[in-house]
Design a protein that fits this description.
1287 residues, mainly beta, six-stranded antiparallel sheet
Length: 1287
């Protein structure tokens, strides 16, 4: 448990016997669970075993902290994490409680919360709460997790104060206030404003408005004359009233008695060669009343000024004449706005301007426009302000409207030209052009509208163009160049080219259809063709082709004039220029036999020809006789007045006057209507000036007055003679309305009824204002009124009925004259729930004399069991409904017999319950022809199944389809070409009209292609559906290969997983473990390739490696390797051969030998020579450097020849750095038990000395030391041997 040694405690007892060891924990708690390790050790070694202990108990506390979000004035959301310790049982739910910080009692919010979050409602604003959560499993309720105190308050604030409060239109009893909305509304929309006033003689602020004020203006009334007031305004939202604005200055409530002051800062906004645009502000003093108008005046200098835009104003304004004559530019009454354009000025003439304000007292002081203004055009290059979104590709769905809005600039106003793909726009395009913007609107976009739209603005200063690429998302256009490549007696090979327009998306596949020339319907040959050709087979020999369209072509006819100077006789044949034929129709032709050709030149001479096309290709052309000259026919406008309109036409006041007049003319004339107010007067008034139709509604007529109307037809060639109508008297005469129709109970239930009726036939001459509904029980004579106010509609829901009671209803109509007579009472209707109609009958079989039907039961039986059904039929097209069954039909299917062959019928079903109530009829089946009919099977599926169906692991996959075909087709499902094996998790549900496959708790191997096959005697049809289960990836493709094995590294390689889980593999995780351990160690967690070199391994250790693929759905299943032992790929060389002693002297001997037979895979780098006395028994003990890297040195040695009488149990390794005299112990006690050890963490280019000592039960023996220093460096796997001598 946590790698700590355990001892005896009050609750824990440990006993160790010679043959047994046990531990006993009394009153176990959750904290006593975990991994226990039993370690056995003696001089012969160690042995350990691990035991996992799970304590079954209540769960621990959930993981914190408790996150509180979404705090509002009465609610918030809390969330937490599941407890780390579940007590050995799944957490079933959580208990959530709360308490106010001012109280000690906890209140349960929800005793059964299954998720780790909860929305808490019904909290008190301003209170501080603490929440706690407890987990629950089958053993009980766990410890609680408490949140920090949370203050419940609304996140929104009251609005800020309104701005720019102004007072105007001051009178003796009222003043007009205006203001601007606050810059911040506190997060909640402003619902209104509160206006307050303060009398200077008083001390309190009083509210001015009783009702809510939503506008930014308000007139304060009820003021006392000559009293002085100040005002303030506060905004209000759902939170409350915000801060009030700063008070205004004091205003005296008196009528104005003086003229206004000069307008504020008059200035020039724009100039042209004939106009100047001026602007100014409101006067600082309005004279105590509202400014009624403004007057603009101008005067000229004595001499024109040459155009010099940069000349100082003082030079241009120097007048030569001593007297200035000011001329009024505005109408005498002035203008209301604070902006005015002075027109009809002389080009390059210098002018002075001034502005005066006018109130009810008179004209105020004038304010001069600074300097002298010259009437001349400002020059500015055209520019387009294109939105950044329009600079990208604009995608729009087919059928939607394209709206391009582009602001434009330029002086003078530039001309705007729109185009598409360097050609004019189509006629339906709507272009709007103003001085500041242009817009293009194209309704009902189609695939042909895709392309590059250009806009060009041009004025005298230059030209600016821009392009906007529009892509219409639509179905692709028809493929082009459909050709028949090969025809045999049983097949036809077709070839085609991709469509010119792909609808904004890549072409997925093609659908090939065929039909015989004697039939009108097409049948699918293939629905998933990915090539540009297809062989259609089998076909019936001898079938003929059909004309599927026409192609119309034209060419311009241009005579060549003779060049003779004085030709007296014209040539017999006029030479012409032979131009190429151009196609007027799409390449695929048109189906109609009539075509209107537009965009021809007026006065042009053309020739036309027509070709028919069928599946074999384009046929021979037929020329239209002669040439055709385009010209416009002009017809003067005419009109015809109906005989009824030549009499006096009477119309009721408030009614609608409609006059229909037939007009003619080419081009289509415009219409103007004129109205004569009085037949005794000769003054005509314009009623309408641009009427497009031949009918006109005249409004605002005076009751009792007689009118006469005059009509003109107008086109571009002029105005027709007028046509006068007879006198028409506007009058009304109304009476009480007649009775409405008998009411009908549209719906009756046990708790309410819906009653409907129709308007009265006679409304008494005045529109019906409303209705009154009365009700009585069938056994009563007392009628009771149902509605309090007048009913505006002809339908009313009556509540408060008693179940089972019979009721009758009647209705009154009311107009402006009063309430009319009541309608007839309807038949008594019982207050019972109705029975729902059955499902729409489905035709399951048809013969030459019968039709088999089936239907679904009603969803609701009206409170009584459905006892039977009535089946009705009618002959089409105009037959009446007649009953088919004369005995009760209790089942939901029926065979209608005795029908006439080749006749058409319609069927419906009515349900009857045990209470004797009949339902409404079901939906009709539609026309059914009675004949022996065989239809091939058809599959109707949702369009979403055309794409790859994706479902998350653990969820349910459902693929459903509707079926059709006679006889009913046989249904079969396959997956990846194999029949699906039904299990408890996989079900297939099929009926005569539908089928569905349901896969519950989807797993990764449920991905694949599901194929639905239908088959009957008429044929076979299949429908593939691709499905991907979104899950963690599967194991990587094995085996996990290990190559490049060295003493401390190896290379792993693997393949990507075959089951990716519906997502891209982002990376791989590689782990390892020693065979002596159970825990896995992460090597690297972000590998993007399928191979990796593992370093830092220990020589001689046995390892197992595993690889896991990772996607966005998580880590997949691991792929494990075989056990591999880390060893050096090289071995020691064999012994040298043929050792011989030559050249012997008194103190030397010369040795010779031959190379060893095998070098161990690495070149021999040297030899070790040993000697011993003839009487000696031992060779010197040797120590070698087995391997070396930049940071480590591996030492090897042999066992001591004498072990001191006790077995050597370990070795101790020491090191010394350079010239240091101190030895440093490298190994720990008992660590090294073999004759090899690697010293790590060494520094390169540093001299090291090493020595090794053997240890037995008596202690440490004499050490052996390296005689030469060694440096840590890469020696590429070669071995270095060094002699050691005893110290």
């Amino acid at each position: 448990m946590g790698e700590q040694e355990l001892g005896n405690t009050i609750h824990r007892e440990i006993k160790n016997l010679p043959t047994k060891a046990f531990i006993s924990v009394k009153e176990a708690k959750l904290s006593d669970g975990g991994e226990y390790t039993l370690l056995l050790r003696n001089p012969g070694g160690e042995k350990s075993v691990k035991v996992n202990v799970m304590v079954l108990d209540k769960p621990g506390e959930p993981q914190g902290p408790v996150n509180v979000t979404g705090i509002m004035k009465d609610r918030c959301c809390i969330s937490w994490k599941a407890p780390l310790q579940d007590g050995g049982s799944k957490i079933s739910h959580y208990i959530v409680e709360r308490r106010e910080t001012s109280r000690l009692v906890w209140t349960v919010i929800d005793p059964k919360v299954e998720s780790t979050c909860l929305k808490v409602t019904k909290l008190l604003e301003g209170d501080e709460y603490i929440f706690r959560i407890r987990a629950v499993n089958q053993f009980g309720v766990g410890a609680p997790l408490e949140s920090a105190p949370v203050l419940i308050k609304d996140p929104y604030l009251p609005p800020e104060a309104p701005k720019a409060l102004e007072v105007s239109d001051i009178k003796k009893d009222s003043m007009l206030l205006t203001w601007e909305a606050p810059s911040e509304d506190g997060g909640s929309p402003i619902t209104g404003y509160i206006i307050e006033k303060h009398d200077k003689e008083g001390v309190r602020w009083t509210r001015c408005n009783r009702a809510t004020v939503t506008d930014l203006t308000f007139r304060v009334t009820g003021l006392l004359e000559s009293h002085i007031y100040e005002f303030r305004v506060a905004a209000e939202n759902a939170i409350g009233v915000g801060e009030a604005s700063s008070p205004t200055v004091f205003f005296r409530a008196v009528d104005p008695v003086f003229k206004p002051g000069p307008p504020h800062h008059p200035r020039v906004l724009d100039t042209s060669k004939s106009s100047v645009l001026l602007s100014w502000g409101k006067p600082a003093c309005d004279g105590g009343c509202e400014i009624q108008a403004y007057i603009v005046e101008c005067c000229t200098t004595t001499a024109p000024v040459e155009p010099a835009p940069e000349a100082p104003a003082e030079e241009a304004a120097a007048p030569e004449a001593p007297v200035e004559e000011w001329v009024m530019c505005t109408p005498p009454a002035g203008i209301k706005h604070k902006k005015y354009e002075v027109t009809n000025l002389k080009e390059n003439q210098a002018y002075k301007f001034r502005v005066c304000a006018v109130n009810k007292v008179g004209v105020g002081e004038a304010a001069d426009v600074s300097g002298v203004i010259v009437a001349q055009d400002k020059v500015e290059e055209p520019d387009l302000d294109i939105d950044p979104e329009l600079r990208n590709i604009v995608s729009i769905k087919a059928g939607a409207s394209l709206r391009l809005f582009i602001p434009i600039k330029g002086r003078p106003t530039p001309t705007v030209k729109w185009g598409k793909d360097e050609s004019p726009l189509k006629e339906t395009a709507q272009v709007e052009i103003t001085s500041s913007y242009t817009s293009l609107v194209i309704d009902k976009m189609s695939r042909n509208d895709s392309g590059k739209y250009s806009i060009t603005v041009e004025n005298a200063s230059g030209t600016k163009s821009a392009y906007i690429v529009v892509r219409v998302l639509d179905t692709p256009s028809a493929p082009i160049n459909l050709k028949v490549q090969e025809i045999t007696n049983q097949s036809v090979t077709l070839a085609w080219e991709p469509p010119l327009l792909d609808g904004g998306s890549k072409i997925k596949n093609y659908i090939v259809e065929k039909r015989e020339s004697t039939r009108k319907t097409y049948a699918a040959v293939v629905t998933n063709c990915h090539a540009l050709s297809w062989k259609v087979e089998p076909l019936q020999e001898g079938c003929s082709a059909y004309v599927k369209g026409y192609i119309v072509e034209m060419r311009e006819y241009t005579p060549i004039p003779e060049e003779t100077e004085e030709a007296e006789v014209a040539p017999a044949v006029e030479p012409v220029v032979e131009k190429e034929w151009s196609m007027c129709t799409p390449p695929t032709g048109i189906q109609a036999t009539k075509l209107t050709i537009t965009d021809l030149k007026e006065g042009g001479e053309y020739q036309f020809r027509v070709c028919a096309i069928n599946s074999e290709g384009v046929g021979e052309a037929a020329n239209v006789h002669g040439t055709v000259v385009t010209s416009s026919r002009a017809e003067a406008p005419e009109m015809e007045l109906d005989a009824e309109l030549r009499k006096v036409v009477s119309v009721r006041a408030g009614g609608t006057l409609r006059l229909f007049v037939t007009i003619r003319g080419r081009p289509e004339p415009t219409v103007k209507w004129e109205k004569k107010r009085d037949t005794n007067s000769q003054e005509w008034q314009m009623a309408a000036g641009n009427v497009a139709r031949t009918a006109f509604k005249a409004g605002r007529l005076t009751h009792g007055a007689e009118y006469q109307f005059r009509i003109y037809a107008v086109n571009r060639y002029g105005k027709s003679t007028y046509l006068d109508s007879p006198g028409i008297t506007a009058q009304y005469n109304f009476k009480l309305p007649g009775p409405p129709s008998t009411p009908i109970v549209k719906l009756a239930t046990k708790s309410f009824m819906i009653v409907t009726w129709n308007e009265p036939v006679n409304d008494g001459g005045s529109p019906v204002l409303g209705y009154h509904l009365e009700r009585k029980e069938r056994t009563s004579i007392l009628w009771t009124k149902m509605n309090r106010g007048m009913l505006k509609n002809t339908e009313y829901k009556v509540s408060g009925v008693d179940e089972g009671m019979m009721y009758e209803y009647r209705v009154y109509a009311e107009n402006i004259a009063g309430i009319g007579k009541c309608s007839k009472a309807c038949e008594a209707v019982a207050a019972r729930d109705p029975c729902d109609p059955p499902g729409m009958p489905v035709v399951t079989a048809v013969t030459r004399s019968s039709v088999s039907l089936s239907w679904d039961k009603p969803e609701y039986d009206g409170g009584a069991k459905v006892s039977g059904y009535v089946i009705e039929r009618r002959d089409l097209p105009e037959g009446r409904w007649t009953r088919c069954n004369f005995t009760n039909v209790a089942e939901t299917h029926y065979d209608a017999t005795g029908l006439t062959e080749n006749s058409q019928y319609d069927f419906r079903v009515i349900a009857k319950n045990a209470a004797g109530l009949f339902s409404e009829p079901s939906d009709n089946t539609g026309p059914i022809t009675v004949k022996d009919d065989v239809d091939p099977p058809r599959i109707m599926m949702d369009v979403k199944y055309r794409e790859t169906v994706k479902v998350k692991a653990g969820e349910t996959l459902r693929i459903s389809a509707d079926l059709a075909g006679r006889p009913a087709p046989v249904v079969s499902w396959t997956k990846d070409g194999k029949e699906i094996e039904l299990r408890a998790r996989i079900q297939i549900v099929s009926t005569d009209t539908s089928t569905a496959i349901v896969v519950k708790d989807c797993i990764r191997r449920d991905s694949g292609q599901y194929v639905l096959t239908l088959q009957n005697i008429a044929g076979t049809v299949t429908m593939p559906i691709n499905c991907v289960v979104m899950d963690k990836p599967g194991p990587c493709a094995g085996p996990l290969q290990i190559t490049g094995l060295t003493a401390e590294a190896c290379t792993l390689s693997w393949g990507p997983p075959q089951e990716a889980g519906g997502a891209e593999i982002t990376h791989y995780v590689v782990e390892r473990r020693e065979t002596s351990r159970l825990a896995w160690t992460l090597i690297k967690g972000d590998i993007t390739k399928t191979f990796y070199k593992v370093k830092g391994l220990l020589k001689g250790e046995e390892y197992v490696f595993r690889v896991l693929a990772v996607s966005k759905h998580g880590s997949g299943e691991p792929l494990e390797s075989e056990i591999v032992k880390i060893t050096d790929p090289f071995t020691i060389p064999t012994a040298p051969m043929s050792v011989d002693v030559t050249d012997i002297t008194g103190d030397t001997m010369t040795l010779t030998w031959c190379k060893p037979a095998a070098d161990g895979g690495s070149a021999v780098i040297g030899y070790v020579i040993e000697r011993r006395e003839k009487t000696g028994m031992r060779w010197p003990v040797k120590l070698k450097v087995v391997d070396s890297t930049k940071t480590s040195i591996t030492l090897g040695w042999s066992k001591p020849e004498w072990d001191g009488g006790s077995e050597v149990i370990s070795y101790m390794v020491e090191k010394r750095v350079g010239e240091d005299e101190d030895w440093i112990m490298v190994t720990s006690k008992g660590e090294v038990k073999t004759t090899e050890y690697t010293v790590h963490d060494l520094k390169p280019d540093t001299d090291y000395f090493f020595r090794v000592s053997a240890v037995n039960c008596a202690g440490r023996g004499e050490p052996l030391e390296l005689t030469e220093p060694v440096q840590a460096k890469d020696i590429l796997g070669k071995s270095l041997w060094i002699y050691l001598t005893p110290l």
